[in-house]
What we know:
By secondary structure, this protein is an alpha/beta fold. Helices cover 39% and strands 16% of the residues. Guanosine-5'-diphosphate is lined by residues 36, 38-44, 102, 105-106, 334-335, 337-338, 375-377, 379, 444-445.
Amino acid sequence: MVIGTIADTLSRGVGNVSDTLSETFFEPVIRLGVTGLSRAGKTVFITSLVANLLDRGRMPQLAAEAEARILAAYLQPQPDDTVPRFDYETHLAALTARTPHWPESTRAVSELRLSLKVRPTGMLAGLQGPRTLHLDIVDYPGEWLLDLSLLEQSFEAWTDATLKRLPQRPGAEPFLALIGGVDPNEEFSEPKAKALAASFTEALNIAREAGFSDCTPGRFLLPGEKEGSPALTFAPLPKPEDPARRGLWREMERRFEAYKSQIVKPFFRDHFSRIDRQIVLVDALGAIHAGPQALEDLRRTMAGILGAFRPGPNAWLTQLLRGRRVEKILFAATKADHLHHSQHGRLTAIMEALTREARDRARFAGAETSAMSMAALRATVEQTLPHEGRELDCVRGTLLNPDGSRGRQAAFYPGALPEDPTHLLTPAREGAEQWLGDDYEIMRFAPAPLTLKPGEGPPHIRLDRAAQFLFGDRL
Ligand code: GDP
């Protein structure tokens, strides 16, 4: 009781003390962050992870489960009253319907608490009764992490960097034409600001659709509940010689600063700073399919995302975290069910190479890191077919039509990933326009109808290994 009252009235620093107290005297809590760029697979991952922790028949690689020490798992009200709850039930219903469909993707931060009752191991096993561990799963868009880099930039520097990048991407012409005709010193008007912000957002969305990853500011793509507020209604604008006091440029600059202090900082303070373990989901196959430029953009974006986990250069974040750090980070290439398992090792190698720089930095900062390829929900089965005199390792599933309806059953061969990841990463880094020789295809599969036996969660690939890496050591 007393702890609650004190924590309510004090800042985050003391809130932390109460976290620690509750861990020591009551029940341990692990805050597991789940992030990744839009459509990387966060919603499907969390839904399948929770379902597979509640019914653990398909989790043999989770050591505590293999040792039969998990006595119970159940959902509980989460501790944070103002954070939306992750809508697990609706998402699971979508995946397990008679005609299943993919759930709605992550749009903002949400949270869910799953509690596990576990029998202790080793010396304590005979002395202690079962203990309870709370797993607080926090889902948030990776785009929001990229905003960290904005904190260090002035509006002028951000405008310069953005306007340099835009012309190299599809979809920017209308916006560039629009600001070409704007006098930055004209008197500020809300309709003008709205039109500029809308056109800029449209350019970001088109770039994202074309496979580009770094589309900051993160809230322009995924605004959350602040949509339409002034802090989200600005756009890059070249600085005039002598900015007028009531001019458009000055107000845009003011809004950019408001975005940083009132949108970006609170997210890092209230959510990011409290994470203990992190999984970063990456749609590496999607980027490979989109081509070398998208892959290079993804590599750079990964380094940007991971900058948040090694806060050294960012004084504000370093001060906020005060030595607290994420203990483990897993980089997972998602949707591995698009590949026959004979290619999973190659996908993991690409994932390792793609996040190499970022992982080296995280290791330097004391976090344990790992890379793997996985599928949170397996939508295909494997099939080897003869093709032009050789055997082709394919996957078979129900194709998803562009309008979202279910298409026909088909076997699919996505192309052979190279054994050596540099065969993809080097041309990407050197600015190649397309892949030489090989083409990498990707289809969207619909989720397969499930017939689950009692005690079984949805089928997956290596979800149990991911769970073991992320929190198995604490069970
Ligand atoms: P989010 O934006 O990160 O929340 O992404 P979602 O979890 O909504 O996933 C986006 C899309 O990726 C889904 O609608 C599916 O089409 C696809 N997807 C995600 N996970 C898997 C998976 O494990 N296997 C397959 N085949 N597709 C997946």
